[in-house]
Amino acid sequence: MTNFDFLLSDPQFTTFREMAVSAEKIYDIDPVACVLNCCRCVEFAVKWIYFVDGKLAVPC
In the 8-state DSSP scheme, what is residue 3? Predict the structure, then answer.
């Protein structure tokens, strides 16, 4: 069980949930790959926030 398992059960987080779970799972094995997965996950999460919140404007 990971800290991000709650994301797996909610379909709205499909775009970045797997990256979050995999980043946490490989932390002990490959910290560099973990950091890369974390960065990708955050990028996708920020894009998701702009997509679902119509009040936000994507910065230029």
Answer: T
* Kind and range of the H or E run holding 21: helix 17-25
**What distance in Å separates the CA atoms of residue 50 and residue 53, rounded to the nearest whole number?**
5
Distance linking the first and last C-alpha atoms of the chain:
39
Residue-level pLDDT, tens digit, the chain, 60 residues: 889 989 999 999 999 999 999 999 999 999 999 999 999 999 999 999 999 998 999 887
Measure the CA–CA gap between 58 and 60, rounded to whole angstroms.
Answer: 6
Q: What is the pTM of this model?
A: 0.80
